[in-house]
Amino acid sequence: MSKNYKYNNLEGIERFGSDISTQLDSQLQTHLPSSIEHIPLEHHKKRDKDEELLAMLFSNIPLSLLGELIASLIFVKIVHITENIFIEKWLYFEISGLFVQLLVVLMYYNRDNFSKLPYLYYYKISLALTYINIACLTLYTFNNNTLIISLGIVYIALTSGGSLFHCYTKNTHIFYIASIFIPYIFLCLAQGGEFIFIGIGALIYMVVSMYASNLLYFYLVQSLELSFIKHKRLNKIMRFRELLNRKQRSLTLQKNKQIKLEKELLTLNETMLAGHQLLSQKKQETLNILDIAYNSINEVVIKTKETGEIIKVNDSFFKCFQLSHHENVQDFVRYFHSIVPQHHPLHRFFPFTPHCFDADFLLQTLDNKTYEVHLKITHNKENIWIINEITEKIEQATSKDHLMHYDELTSLPNRHHFYKTLQTYIEESKQSNTLLAVIFIDIDYFKMINDSLGHQYGNQLLVYFGNLLRNTLDNKDYIARLSGDEFICLIKNLTYKSDIDSTIEKIQKALKKKVNLGPNTISIQASFGVSYYPCDSQSENELISRADSAMYHAKKKKTEYYVRYHPDLTKENKQTHQMGTELKNAFHSKLLHLVYQPVFSANAKTIEKLEVLIRWRDEAPPSSFIPIAEQLGFFHEISLWLMEEACKARITLDKILTSPLKFTINLSTSQVQNPKHMFQLIEIMNHTGCRPEWIEFEIKEQALSYMEYTKMLISIAQKHGIALSIDNFGTGISSLSLLKNIPFDTLKLDKQFIQHAHHEKKGQSILASLIHLAHQMNSRVCICGIETKDQLRQAQKEHCLLQGFYLSKPLDFISLSKIIGKS
């Protein structure tokens, strides 16, 4: 009954566990991912049971081996008095068997290196050999009653403990009990007497031990199965709990999302309400702004019904028609009809709808005002009349057309008008078979005057020059201003080219009169270039460009104020522009360099000054490229570079000098006429650290004709402590009368005086007179152009400064430094 009850309890527990397992499996299979591998429970049971039994077996083997070893040693100790050699040999076999078991145990615990070995199989074999070896003890105790009794006690001791250690292998343990006791039972029965009862007792003990071993094995297996079921259920419960937790987290997340969504919906609702309020506010503001704009626009807006009743008007309505806000706007209809011509459609239709669609009208009223009227018909059959007065616009358009064809400053026709007129004149000349002259006129030094006196006086000069041309030429002659200081004239119906000479002479005569520009009184000059249709070209653009070329040639020569175009000018202009381009490239590529020509004392031994000269090509003298640089407008840039390099050279040279030495720098006429250039040169001198007493400026004699600018230049130079000298003196006729008004330091005589003085007494007298005159004005004199020994001898008699190729050619800086270093 007890056994069945236990079985029933076990079966009940297993059924209960099976029911729970079935429910959990169904839940897990429903909710867990399909990718999880489901292994049958029976397979899990068998595999887990074998592995667990094996582990439990090997965990108890060391104690079992120790017990067997102790029992074997005790037995040997008991029977050592027999001096039986077979028992000692048996002990060796017994210990060998135990060692084999120990080796199997060690192999199991090192099973990573022996993963494919059947450990349980090897253990059973070693255990069976040990048991058979133990059973063989029976053979050694035959006819020895004491050993038989001792052996029975040892067997009982071994098997009673072995049930606990070897029950994990049921069949092996039963075989172990049977192999020990069956030979012993037969031994006892064979001895007879009281040993028969010992044999029967051993038989009973053997049966009970087998039963106990079998029962222990059964309960052990049941216990393991229940343990496996428990762990399996616990794992499933844990997985189900994890599933529930995941579901709970998912529900919590969904709930949080729902709460967040509700908050967002509430926020969106509040935002929409606020937006609606803001929209209403903005709408009202927009209506207010539209109302303000409605009343602010310049156009008159009149809103009428289909029946002609005026509903609303803006503020411009009252301003345009000079009505008061208190007047009845309905009376405006009668006023409007009174100023609209009767033949005009608006006289009949306003303020009613004249059409079923929008319409535009141009209205010229009886009071000489012009209006644009736009009718807009709305969907509610209301009319919006937009009336815009364009009287002023029309007047401005007329004025704009005038500005489009005439120069605003001089009121002369402009370039656009000129090209149209030129085409017309060419057609007329072609039909009449006469010559047409194109005169290109440019004011000399206008840029200098404009920069020095200011744009205000420059504009006054342009107006004056335009009026001068208009008053000088005949009414039939055409005058236009192209741009800047460029003017152009068209003279038609000519028979000969020389017919134009009298016209240009009249202009030149008119230019001799001085011009008052504010506090300044100046003289102006102009250069003229002429081309003829059809002789020089039949193309409008070529006629203009060739007249421009002729004018450019006249400006370049400076001795001819009037030049007719001829084919050689084109070639010459191309060469000039080509050389100008090469010079500009050379300057930017730093191919220009400076040389220094000494100015000696009267004994021709001491260097008093050094004239700074610029060089480009060895075969190109400065007189060939400096005028080109001036004409193309980049000479001032070159002069600034020259000033900076000269100042640096003078500072470097000061380290080896033992006495004062000036650098003389030439100024062009354009630089003399523009004080800004002078200030820029002085600024460079101060920036480099060059002292003013080291520098001396040279101006050409031709610059004396611009007395106002020359005096201004001298004043600026003296204020900064810079000396001034006059170069090439004697090439002009009016120079003597101008010298008394100019304080200068050195007078450099032109080379013609020394060239004539050494073989002409008259030349010697002139030279002596000039030197005496300069000395009277407390000025030093330099005789230039000494090229022979005789000229040097003659010049030394005058006790002046000396300069010329015979004394020294221009030197580069290295050669100059060597000469100064030696001296």
UniProtKB/TrEMBL annotation:
Transmembrane segment boundaries: 53-78, 90-109, 121-142, 148-167, 174-192
Keyword Transmembrane helix annotated: yes
Keyword Cell membrane among record annotations: no
Family annotation (SMART domains): EAL, GGDEF
EAL domain mapped to chain residues: 576-823
Entry-linked PANTHER family: BIOFILM ARCHITECTURE MAINTENANCE PROTEIN MBAA, DIGUANYLATE CYCLASE DGCP
Protein name: Inner membrane protein
